[in-house]
């Protein structure tokens, strides 16, 4: 009904007040925002990476590679354990998630079973061991990861990777990075602002798996290069990418046992990496160095031999130094990687988008300019088409709409992207459509001979159904964009949806309230937008 | 001032015989749609890296300096990365094309590391034209681009299906078919425009088309709403005349809203910069076509199909309205 109802007036005034309050922080500088008293809302619009600059990385955790690696380690454990128990094996057959040992002498199956049982290790947090041993026939024993472990391996790897990536990015000093999981095996890293995308990628891209392994001196490197690699050894390249090294597969100590790394200097003053092992690492490293005095061991990072020093004597203190041809920057990045921990699985960059802050600022400028121009065009056009009163009323509704959109987007911290700005501009056009529908209805009714009040009343009532129908379709389109869309499209969908609600609210309600005031005080005899000549 | 407000000058009651020309309009629509569909395959859409995979880099020199595009093209071409596209674009800060800014597009060969390839290309560019700044770099792997394409096309399909369901639910099946025919028409022609102007088909473009779908429906709903109302009001009037009447009655709204939207989008296309240009042009075109289709595709299909008037009349209250001035 077109009469002044108190609750409508209150609603409009309240929404205006809250809108201004929530949109207000956008008019302030970041420093001013920070100094606002605690009870005031501080959130400004959350600009997308395309508007404020920054990097977006979509990483995929190579879970398959990790599973293969875990099984590799398991097979190596079996080999060592059989040798230590003095059990001869025909072969070790690799299987999905584990391996089967074929014992040469079937009478020793039980001994093999017992030896492998020792490899199950302590139960994990849930009380269930990661590995299980089963007899699979005469002379055959199987050691494999449990079904549950295999299933959770991927999820665990992604979770661990997120943690490691977060630590590494924090070590770069990146401002407010967002690291989230996407789907089963992907991680999205978003780092806003003037971060160095190349450094980001370099830091994330490295697995940083550090291991200490003995150099194989019993077999010749030349034979291995020619293709005859012994089963318990592997051929690796040096940091220069050329020098081949033949290294025992067995890992003496790994980066997991590292408690702290730091940049130091070697005897000749070049950058080196100092490290300290935890108790277990120190013990294992001490035992290994004591047993291998005079022999070289290899320090391996991500499959590359950084250096292969000779053990001069047992190292029992748990500290050591890695020397190599490091620059200061390389050394400090490596230290950060080591302190951040190794990634459980390699990460591959599937998608990356980088926008510099300047480009983002230019986009904001262009977006703001076109929004302003679009807004002015609508205002002029509405005033031109419907006159100061009716056109003016829809302009007031439009302004409230603009405030409410900014307020809602600041409140929900929805990301405003460049296409989102386009959505915003389009929202203004659609908001006016609600007014146009109402006004055209009123004109129809006035033409049909109804009084001013009756035709205005009918105008609102009849147009409402159409307005709701029309806006629901936009909402459906926006919902689909949100579900299927990626990145900037989602921002667009979100802006569009917020716009649908605020525009229907402000253009209908504001028009109702203001037109009711006009009816009450001007007591018009004719509808100003109706045809003058009948 | 007799011409202001403008709305008083606009004839409130028009009597265009839209339906009379529906036949010609249908021929035109069918020809254009066929051409648009064919063009999507030959020459085909200009797929952006979102959907094709690969890399796109924006390189710039300070204002006043120019980048030798040919030198960049040949030096990057030597890296054997498949087809390399180099294109000069407007400067971001001034929105003027002065040769200082360019966009480079290339593929990441299978099995090669993204970062390595990007570094090689950066090296080649620096070698060819000296130091440049890389203001925007996007690299999309082939796996992700495939997924993005599938989900983009899926989104368009689901949108159309949901709109059909919505109209079916709110109106009659015939209305639903009319609306969906209009939607398909708009979507297909927008695709045709994208091909014709070699606009880049990207994620943003999918958003633009989805918006066109939303707008086109919006327009169609307004017309259908009036049509349904008039079908109840004038039970004996021939369907053809009711359709004409409804189109005429909603015409002023159709024009005002359409003009507003198109003007605003034109502002966006002119001042929104390179990034929004394709997007706003596609939207603008889609909205124009959407307006046309709600008059010439949606409604005539209902005429073709026919409406069971009785069904609609069942729940209709007899509305006594003046309409005295209707001849």
Strand portion of chain B, in percent? 5-15%
pLDDT average of chain B, as an integer?
84
Tell me the strand percentage band of chain A.
Answer: 15-25%
Q: What is the count of helical runs of chain B?
A: 11
In the CATH hierarchy, what is the superfamily of the largest domain in chain B? Multidrug efflux transporter AcrB transmembrane domain
**How much is the average pLDDT of chain A?**
84
CATH class of the domain at 6-53 and 357-522 in chain A: Mainly Alpha
Radius of gyration of chain B: 25 Å
Instruction: Give the % helix of chain B.
Output: 55-70%
Q: Which CATH class of the largest domain in chain B applies here?
A: Mainly Alpha
- What is the H/E order of chain B? HHEHEHEEHEHHEHHHH
Question: What does this entry show, briefly?
Answer:
The complex is a heterodimer of chains A (534) and B (327). Chain A is an alpha+beta fold. Chain A has 14 helices and 18 strands.
Keywords:
heterodimer, A: 534 residues, alpha+beta, Multidrug efflux transporter AcrB transmembrane fold, five-stranded mixed beta barrel, four-stranded antiparallel beta sheet, 20% strand, elongated, B: 327 residues, Alpha-Beta Plaits, 2 domains, 11 helices, 6 strands, disordered C terminus
